[in-house]
Amino acid sequence: MKLFRRKSTSNARRLALRDGNNRTAAIPTRRLTLGLSRAETLAAMLARSRASGTIEIADMLAGMYVSDWERLSQYWQPHDHERVEGFLRHICGISPQRWHAWIEFYDRERHGDTDRSKLLPFFRRKAKLIAARHNLPVRHSASLEGIFKEAEKVAPYRDRTPTRSIPILTSECLLLCIARNTTSEISRKLAATGLDMLLIEKEALFPRRARRE
After folding, report:
1. Of 30, 37, 198, 208, whose Cβ has the fewest other Cβ atoms within 10 Å?
2. Lowest-pLDDT choice from 42-51, 89-98, 137-146, 155-164
3. How far apart are CA 122 and CA 106, in angstroms?
4. Structural domains of the chain, ranges and CATH numbers in brackets
């Protein structure tokens, strides 16, 4: 099982590699654990669903919630979970019905079930739109990319190469950097939901064991 996913190269780069004009792939600036990679993929889908080529902080939080809430929920008190989930749905502008549709779609995609006829009514209406924009290039917004850059600085894991040290980002690491970003209103509201900053800092910066995903 592959642990990390390399960041995508540009279209021009991919064409060059395909045509054999360049045999050496560019070294990535960072790598993501499988959990964070899944969250980023879902965030890109959410961005495409609103015809946007930019992944925002809200999209990334939504992706992290849908793909890995069971693990991330430990950083809030159990009695706060319902309120936190409501907050996440609100900042992403997603109704409870649409939110559950995304969760069902994500689970089906992850398990290889592509029978669109079984999807909820919401996603049946949206499936063609997303499929049409499947190849729409998406990138991080400036604010989200800034958070990824901060996460690179504090990432506890590194992939050593002969020429450089590549940071490996975890979901905890990114969540911490989102909450620390005082310039973003969403980040300030996230920190105010009762997120246990001491616990998330401990797990993000000084993990007890190597992450498997």
Report:
1. 208
2. 89-98
3. 14
4. 28-205 (1.10.1780)
